[in-house]
Amino acid sequence: MPIISPRNSTILPRSNSPTPNTSTSSLQSIIHNQKEIQDSETRFQAVLSNTLAINYFQKFAIKEYSVENLLFWLDVELFAAGNSCDIEDNYFEEQQTAVIHARYIYYTYIYSDAPLQVNISDEIRRDINWPIDDDDVVERNMFDEAQEAVYQLMKGYTFIGFEDSP
């Protein structure tokens, strides 16, 4: 029975040993594909962690009409990082800032009429705890599931095209 790799949703074989019907070349192909998947993941993460590479990736995404995915991913990274303060006065200010940032992300990328709406499932969209009020405590991980879905889209489509481009 196949398993799904958690980060890339690729179906991988459960067993590492060949079955009687599996030829050596197909086993080598499976091993090569697993290595390629890992290498692709590493390369994509390297792009997302390098400012210059992100700039080139963003220019490519603009040409491909998919820049909203990268912008959303970057905004959620900033939102999730947030500031953590132990001082009570700063905590209130931090929460107000978090509410404003969460609203910005929601109405820019998630909302049904968002100007840069990202392609996520209705289920993920519904799972985002919305609306939030000014006095709500905002969870910094509220967009994590949507961010992961967008990450997979970028890695599976935009990044492949980016790597193949001149």
TrEMBL record:
UniProt biased composition (Low complexity): 15-26
Protein name, entry field: RGS domain-containing protein
Compositional bias per record (Polar residues), positions renumbered to this chain: 1-14
Species of provenance: Rhizophagus irregularis (strain DAOM 181602 / DAOM 197198 / MUCL 43194) (Arbuscular mycorrhizal fungus)
Residue segments, region Disordered: 1-26
A Pfam cross-reference name: RGS
Residue stretches making up the RGS domain: 43-166
PANTHER family (UniProt xref): DOUBLE HIT, ISOFORM B, REGULATOR OF G PROTEIN SIGNALING
